[in-house]
Amino acid sequence: MSANPFATDDMAAGYASSRPPVHPDVLRLALPGDKPRRALDIGCGAGLSTAALPPFTSHAVGLEPAVSMLAWHSSIAPQSDFLAARAETLPFPAATFPLLTAAGSLNYVHHLPSFFAEAARVL
Question: CA-CA distance, 107 to 78, in Å (whole number)?
């Protein structure tokens, strides 16, 4: 069994089908102006938070460390890109994204100072 309780097929299925659809409402409140060109969604889980981004950005990328969660992305957010990686070591060049979201995921980041340095770098 994985040390990460979120890295199971059952947990991924639950995230894909049973999470409340609050992400579009939050984005409407947070982004009333111009559409950012790209957005990075940290800890995207099964992709529900990433699926909410396309009306607000031209291109969305979901990042998730639990690979089993990413099995759902093609049915939940087929218009977005996804990759397995950790928030503490973002695999993108500096200044890649004008928008970064993290819907309920930062409490799972092992080292927040590393994440915040990486977030500042890619923003």
Answer: 27
Find all residues with CB under 8 Å of 21, minimum gap 6, and list them.
Answer: 48, 52
pTM of the model as a whole: 0.77
Cβ neighbours around 41 below 10 Å, total = 30
Residues 122, 94: contact at Cβ < 8 Å?
A: yes
Q: Which residue has the higher pLDDT, 8 or 118?
A: 118
54-79 pLDDT tens trace:
888 999 999 999 999 899 888 999 99
For 83, list phi and psi in degrees, rounded to 5: -150, 155
Q: Which residue's entry shows tokens 């969305």?
A: 60
- 89, two tokens: 């070591």
pLDDT surpassing 80 at residue 44: yes
Distance CA 122, CA 103 (A): 18
As a whole number of angstroms, the longest Cα–Cα distance in the chain is 45
Backbone angle region of 32, left / alpha / beta, with phi > 0 → left and psi within -120 to 50 → alpha: alpha
Tell me the sheet residues that pair with 42.
63
Distance CA 8, CA 55 (A): 30
